[in-house]
Amino acid sequence: MKAADNGRKLGRMILLVVLLIGVFILYLFIGRYPQLGFTSIRDLVNDTTTQRVFFSLRLPRALGAFLLGAVLGGAGAMLQTIFGNPLVDAGFLGVSQGSAFGAAIALVLGSSPSLAKNLGDRGLAVFVMSLSFFMALGALALSLFFAKKFKFGGQVLRLVLAGLAVSAFFSSLLAAVKYVADPLKTLPDIVFWTMGSLSAMTWQKLAGIAPLAAASILVMFVLRWRSSLLSLDDQVSRSLGLHPETERAIAAAFAALGVAAMTASCGIVAWVGLVVPQGARIIFGPDGRDALPASMLGGAVFVLLADGIAKNLFPGELPLGIVTALMGALLFIFVLTSRKTEMAR
Amino acid sequence: MKAVSLENVSFSRLGRGRILEDISFSIEAGEKVAILGANGAGKTTLLSLIAGHLKAESGKIELNGQPLRSLSPLERARSIALLPQIERLPFNYSVLDFVLMGRAPHIQALSQPSEQDYAMARSALAELHLEHLEQRSAAEISGGEFQLIRIARCLAQEADTLVLDEPTSLLDPANSQRVARELALLAKKNRTIIFSTHDLALVQSVSDLVLLLYNKKIMMFDNPSVVLEPKFLEKSYGIAFRMLQVPTAYLA
């Protein structure tokens, strides 16, 4: 690599890290307590309630936003690269829909008086998260299984088709659960969950999901160059000594693991995994060694900004998924109309 | 030493029946072999068998004296580099990053390319006189240049044997000639090159031996001057041939 080019990319990456740190600090200090605006250092030092809000509510939520963004951005970049398709996102392979169905089932079951009594509020939250996580992994397993069984197309097409079918399957099950859910008690919870939110993030929740999210981020980061190799046609990557089918399935599974863990606790947060990697590729180029870490950092910036808006714009909190979808759609239109957007051959 | 040897190799494909039958030949290290035959004669299948991407139904294939099936994909990739006829470019990688991917067999699965790998990629580009393209996007260069950077990626692989599936097809005459000229230069070096083609001028300028396929079998395996006779080509391709001697532009 030319030294100038290398230096330029490094400079951009450092700028992105500085931006992330800046947005993270702003996120921590801007809120609605004691009044809407910037929390002063004096309040933070002297006021115990401010300290509690800062360390027990904002800090775990900020770290949750960071992890959510990093996982969604990284998984989007990984899946787009290994499937050689820039329009794939983290909800691909049925993970989001499987997760949503698991959460909806848990919310419906948890609303029954006997179970609600036994579980309690915290038990119900754990129940929702667990069922959502396992259904997400179940959907992923089903997608990989059907991709192997399908008799039509190459591996990439088979995975896309299997993910599509499994997503549609879980979407219909989710619709059925919504249909039978109590419209006054449970349905609003399901709808709110499917729109995503970080409002319920606690240190305890964070401790539960962080190891899985961190494992996913670490594996994706290590596989960043490998992901570019997997973007090539199977015949080429095989000629380069890879096992494209197996390696692609492993990379997709680790990407989906992080998404499943984060979706189980935060609900469905759309568009981050689709749009952030597009921007990262324009700024850093398509090579996984740059695009993947940039997507993780960019995803974290994106979600911190979106959640900052979601929690501060109105007195009542907006679901995060609405803000990410709005920001994502606008950014997507901007990216696709940008002169630097070029589709490959 | 034999770079490649096949003994009684047959191959069938589901729904298409037998494609190759009882194929036996061997190629010495450093030899350049052209594979000729009509569309559907089994040229691509034969190259895929040699590269280990397809498993022979029966018979034995050896690479550098070792049974092909006993080699791991990584070992195979260090010995033989296959250039498929068609390749989709998924993202607009820079030319250098694209050629660097040829270093994959020499880099551990969880590692990243080193400075030495970059040097090898650059050297592969230089061998094909493409250094000036290094920072260009692979999506922006001409078809002939794209074909050449694919060949450069094979060179970066440092394999002794190059297997090229119709390297000049799908190119316009100017680009085809440019690729053929570089192949003729590569042929002067010590690598083993096996390529399929329909370009008889390319065969004459690059190959030491020609393998002519017909009716699932080897019809001839000999020097170009022997095989490129109208009567043999007519039988293999099913049309009339007339040989005209013209100065070839491929010989550098």
Indicate the mean pLDDT of chain A.
Answer: 89
Segments of chain A where pLDDT lies below 50 for 5+ residues? Answer: none
Range of helix content of chain A: over 70%
Instruction: Please state the CA-atom Rg of chain B, rounded to the nearest Å.
Output: 18 Å
Helix content of chain B: 25-40%
Domains of chain A, number: 1
As a percent range, the share of strand residues of chain B is: 25-35%
- The CATH level-2 architecture of chain B is identified as 3-Layer(aba) Sandwich
Main beta-sheet strand count, sense and barrel state of chain B? 6 strands, mixed
What oligomeric state do these chains adopt?
heterodimer
Tell me the radius of gyration of chain A: 21 Å
The whole-number mean of residue pLDDT values of chain B reads 91
**Most extensive contact:** A-B, 36 and 41 residues
Structural class of chain B: alpha/beta
Task: Kindly describe this structure.
The complex is a heterodimer of chains A (345) and B (252). With 345 residues, chain A is mainly alpha-helical. Chain A has one domain (3-337): ABC transporter involved in vitamin B12 uptake, BtuC, CATH 1.10.3470.10. Chain A is built from 14 helices and two strands; from the N terminus they run H-E-E-H-H-H-H-H-H-H-H-H-H-H-H-H. Chain A has helices spanning 3-29, 41-46, 48-82, 95-110, 113-149, 155-180, 186-194, 203-222, 224-231, 234-239, 244-266, 272-284, 288-312, 320-337, and strands at 30-31, 37-38. Chain A has a two-stranded antiparallel sheet with strand order 1-2. In chain A, a hairpin with a 5-residue loop joins strand 1 and strand 2. In chain A, helix 4 runs parallel beside helix 6 (155-180), helix 4 (95-110) packs antiparallel against helix 7 and helix 12 (272-284) runs parallel beside helix 14. The model of chain A has no long low-confidence stretch (mean pLDDT 89). Chain B has a single domain (2-237), classed as 3-Layer(aba) Sandwich (Rossmann fold). Chain B has nine helices and ten strands. Chain B has helices at residues 43-50, 73-79, 95-100, 115-127, 143-156, 173-186, 200-206, 224-227, 230-237, and strands at residues 2-13, 17-28, 32-36, 58-63, 66-67, 80-83, 161-165, 192-196, 209-214, 217-222. In chain B, helix 4 crosses helix 5 (143-156) and helix 5 runs parallel beside helix 6. Chain B starts with a strand and ends in a 15-residue tail after the last helix. Chain A binds chain B through residues 1-2, 5, 81, 84-86, 222-226, 228-229, 231-233, 235-243, 247, 281, 285-287, 289, 342-345, and chain B through 51, 53, 73-74, 76-78, 80-84, 87-94, 96-97, 101-102, 104-105, 107, 109-113, 118, 134-135, 137-140, 146, 157.
